[in-house]
Write a structure and sequence with these properties.
Two copies of one chain form a homodimer. Chain A has helices at residues 16-35, 50-53, 60-63, 84-94, 137-152, 168-177, 183-190, 198-205, 212-221, 224-236, 282-286, 302-311, 313-324, 341-353, 367-376, 410-415, and strands at residues 39-40, 46-48, 68-70, 76-79, 102-111, 123-132, 161-167, 243-245, 259-265, 274-278, 295-301, 331-335, 358-360, 381-385, 391-396, 402-406. The first copy, chain A, is an alpha+beta fold. The first copy, chain A, has two domains: 2-321, BirA Bifunctional Protein, domain 2, CATH 3.30.930.10; 331-415, 3-Layer(aba) Sandwich (Rossmann fold). In chain A, the strands form three sheets. The first copy, chain A, has an eight-stranded mixed beta sheet. In chain A, strands 13-12-14-15-16 form a five-stranded mixed beta sheet, sandwiched between helices. In chain A, helix 12 (302-311) crosses helix 13. The longest helix of chain A is centred in the N-terminal third of the chain and has 20 residues, at 16-35. Chain A starts with 15 loop residues before the first helix and ends with a helix.
């Protein structure tokens, strides 16, 4: 197959051991989101290009990274680069059918033609959670708390990560107090505060009547009174130590209207683990005013999270423990006497019908080799079918303890043990 | 958003209730595959076009339905239309790292630009399971048994579906006995036996020295001796009644070398539920002989299966029961006194930390409305935070039974109950 032996650059093969790690992350995300009363949704991988060309949705950067093409029906289509446009489309079409607030999450794959670098791939998985139909600080707190608990689920503590809180409303209040009228342009400049030289920024700020020093002063003050209600909510949940106020965060996308936040590893050595914010006007804008639902949402990608798990010993240990607890086979059926293969197949079927992960050798093999396979697959028990028939020998592999039971009582015996 | 309010034709939105049904099918597939000792893998959604242009892999029909295009790096790429080429690529690259046989499954989405009709979509999900490195009848039986148990998992019985078994080797033996040398061409004609008029088929068969009547005669005889070992294996597993010999099945793809099989609903009113077969030469051919692994595999799509579940009352009832057992909230926290909201938030966090799906009203609401929300979300319990504080009232919603406990003992009380 020559050059096609590898996946495309920026795309991943998931061999069984990779797929198990992916499953660990996906299962963790789903478990926590459901504890928060969020329900899962999804959309198509391919969407009409029109969905991404609308103003206020995807940023210009994302449009330049789209995988878009004409399909066989001459439609302009694109692989989804993010969830928000699909979510907005679906919510606007059917929001009347659901009680408010909507608490929806998704765990989907997205596609962006990005330059390759650490923490960035061209196909990645992202958890998204959106709470729609509630404009309160309580909803903000629910969203931030979910972000925290998603990360805690993987074993991370307040020493490992922090959620940085900011608020576009706090900025707009401040800027308007300073006489700035075009707050949108100034917010776009603030987004570049740590990436551009101060002189160039000051030149851009000059027409608006503020300086980099002014902005840094506001960031340093932190506007604590603005965040007091949210901090109070998080304190009541015991989650206060996971957050910090950091007004330097404004997020790139234009549609945010209030709270914005990002999760970082404490050493801040990596890209953001998660990020999101309140977008109270987006659904109204996209539906020409017919669906007015305030909303807050965030995304968490699998790539940076996976890197942080690998680099954090206690999180890595937790993952490895979870993976070891789900072996390829829980019970291995040993055919100790080939003339009993027929009976062994019946035993295998009984075990599987009872919900156990069971494997056996498809071909005649030495008993020692079969026990070796049992251990390699991570089995806890071996059920031996052979000379003792119509009895079975059940061996606990870790302790070498043995018990012999009549084969008709296997289903009974299994009930005393957990699959 | 005008015309972009809907998904592209042939693509699906998964609203929460659709996503729950999709999850029911995916979870069922995964559970059963794991019981059989199969481990999950996956590949990228986008692959190099080269992977599908190779001989012996995708059929010509699939190539004509590809979603292919040039990416921003001028690479010819395609959305995957099936799993086998990706699986073959991955296995050939790394098979040495794994013990044999490989038992790999996947639950992935695929893309084909098909004409729209019942049971066909342009993005669909397919379960695939491949057992590689074992050429025995035992492996054939393991693959057929897995197909049966996947369908049984959804509540289907032998009255609902049947696996039709055929074998290309039996056909080739018969055709060679009749002096046919170009068996491949005749197999392609057999594949059309039920779709083309007899005269046109006889005209095509004439150069090969056989007639439609000959072929129908062989199908009617059924070659029972050929299938005896497989039937014996399935009998030992108690699964014989789920299969029938039907030599009219040869499967469209050229790469099959032995057993081929398809699963149908008993009334045969739908397309095949699943289909597959043995492909002992494919991996060798694709690796230019460097990786010789005999293999058997099959696929099962989500669309026809979903239709059959919807149309089979006992399967539908089983699904609905499973979905009802996983409500959006298991415990609802009722804030009966707004001045206790802070304490209620602590209770919510305690419940979630203990693994319970918990929801509550983000805004002040009448107690009656909160109980109504609890029932709509499917909650079993309501924990009431109000006048009794520092005690909590726990109400079982179905029975209206109540218990009052000190709030500090909530974690203790939860341990006596299953999340």
């Amino acid at each position: 197959m020559g050059g096609s032996m590898r996946p495309l650059p920026g795309f991943r093969d998931f061999y069984p051991e990779d797929c198990a790690r992916r499953g660990y992350v996906l299962d963790g995300w789903r478990r926590v989101a459901r504890r928060y009363g969020f329900v899962e949704m999804d959309g198509p991988v391919l969407e009409s290009m029109e969905l991404y060309a609308k103003k206020n949705e995807s940023g210009a950067e994302i449009l330049g990274q789209l995988y878009n093409f004409k399909d066989r029906g001459e439609r302009d289509v694109a692989l989804r680069p993010e969830m928000t446009p699909t979510l907005a489309r679906m919510v606007i079409a059917r929001e009347r059918a659901y009680r408010k607030p909507l608490k929806w999450f998704s765990t989907s794959n997205f596609f962006r033609y990005e330059r390759q670098q650490k923490g960035r791939l061209r196909e990645f998985i992202q958890f998204n959670a959106d709470l729609m139909g509630d404009a309160s600080t309580a909803a903000d707190a629910e969203s931030v708390a979910l972000t925290i608990d998603l990360l805690r689920e993987f074993g991370f503590t307040k020493e490992d990560f922090v959620i940085r809180l900011s608020d576009r409303k706090a900025w707009i209040d401040y800027l308007q107090g300073r006489g700035v009228s075009d707050t949108k342009s100034v917010l776009a400049i603030i987004d570049k505060l740590e990436r551009e030289p101060e002189e160039s920024l000051d030149a851009k700020l000059a027409p608006h009547g503020v300086t980099v020093a002014d902005l840094r002063g506001f960031i340093a003050a932190g506007s604590p009174e603005h965040f007091a209600p949210l901090i109070e909510e998080l304190t009541a949940r015991g989650l206060k130590d996971f957050v910090e106020i950091d007004l330097s965060i404004v997020r790139g996308l234009a549609y945010y209207t209030g709270l914005v936040f990002e999760a970082f590893d404490r050493s801040k050595s990596m890209r953001a683990l998660a990020g999101g914010g309140r977008y109270d006007d987006l659904l109204g804008d996209l539906s020409d005013g017919s669906v007015k639902l305030p909303a807050i949402g965030f995304g968490m990608g699998d790539v940076v999270l996976g890197n942080l798990i690998e680099e954090t010993p206690h999180a890595l240990a937790k993952m490895e423990q979870a993976l070891a607890a789900a072996p390829a086979a829980e019970i291995y059926t040993v055919v100790a006497d080939e003339s009993r293969r027929r009976e062994a197949l019946g035993v295998v079927q009984t075990l599987r019908d009872a919900g156990w992960r069971t494997d056996f050798s498809l071909d005649a093999a030495k008993v020692g080799k079969q026990f070796q396979a049992a251990e390699q697959l991570g089995a806890r028990y071996a059920v031996v079918v052979g000379g003792e028939w119509p009895n079975l020998k059940i061996k606990t592999l870790a302790t070498r303890a043995e018990v012999t039971i009549p084969h008709e009582t296997l289903a009974e015996w299994l009930k005393t043990t957990q699959p």
